[in-house]
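Second attempt. The first submission of PTS system, glucose subfamily, IIA component had a stray character pasted in from the spreadsheet, which I only caught after the job came back as garbage. Lesson logged: always re-copy from the clean sequence file. Corrected sequence (155 aa) follows.
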Amino acid sequence: MFGLFKNKSSEIHTPVNGVVVDLKEVNDPVFRDKMMGEGFAVKPSDGKICAPIKGTIKSIFPSLHALTLEAEDGLDILIHIGLDTVELNGDGFSSTIHEGQKVKAGDPLVQVDLAFLAENKKDSIVIVVFPEMQNKEVVINPGEKQIGEIAAVLK
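This time the job returned cleanly.
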């Protein structure tokens, strides 16, 4: 009975096939040092990026390298695809999503050409952070994951 008002945990699914890792493995101090918030990263094995939760697309960067989602509980989630990929001005990225669109976990968001990123010497790591999250802990489920498997739990 007393547990009714405790914060519920939230499952965050992996947005891309690959290896889920701690933010410490991201080769960028802004993410590695958690300046953008707690989260996790995925070393992708393909370029299909999908929604990690059920929610609404809040914003999409014109270059398609990053987007934010708002979960049903109000949590903001930033998905950042690659490092320094904003410099590509959208080349190598494609998408048909739009701001305000409702999505469920596993719905396709962005397609990225990993070979194009490699040709342009860009790290392809996919970063998932929670910029405004407070009073919760991110428990990462590391290792090889497929889209839709649980990558982290927020407690």
